[in-house]
Sequence to fold (230 residues):
Amino acid sequence: MGIPGRDGRDGRKGEKGEKGDTGLKGRVGTPGAGARGDPGPPGKQGPMGERGDVGRPGQPGQGGQKGDKGKRGRRGTGGVCKCGSLLPKSAFSVAITSSYPTEKIPIKFDRILLDEGGHYSPETGKFICAYPGIYYFSYDISVANKHLAIALVHNGQYRIKTFDTNTGHHDVASGSTAIFLNPEDEVWLEIFYVNQNGLFTDPGQADSLFSGFLLYADTNYFDTLAEDYV
Fold:
């Protein structure tokens, strides 16, 4: 047997083989001793999370500065004047249909000649004030067969009293006065002496009348009424 020959030359590089299976993950190595590197660039924005609960309201901010005055608006359409509806109206004139009424109670004049405002009551014989102001009252009473002692009464107090002596003929007793009234004040006529009730009426001969009306309303009341209306 002869001496072994020399090694031959390396052969040519073979073709790339197929990729092998992934090997098992190795153990984490010991951290290196090098310095920490610079932060990397920010990543892409992640998906939006769910909406959180509403937070507590913050403290009110300071008031802003006053703005400039605005431009003048357009002129509005004119309103309808109803001034006449503000004028208080109160007047009455009434007659009685029976003679010789009972004394010391309101005389019930039960025939209405005029009742502007509806402030006189034939059921009670009383005028009840609706508007404060100065009122004028008068009466013209036919008298027959008896004397007549009649008075104008304001809230139970005699304001004027007249006395007519019967002479055997028909006569007329009259009286008038001006009174300041407040709302709900009452005015009526009353015979103030017993058996002095010669008040007479006859449809074919004579009437007995009681009348009153508002001269002018209290100015303060009228001003307030106008303000409330507007």
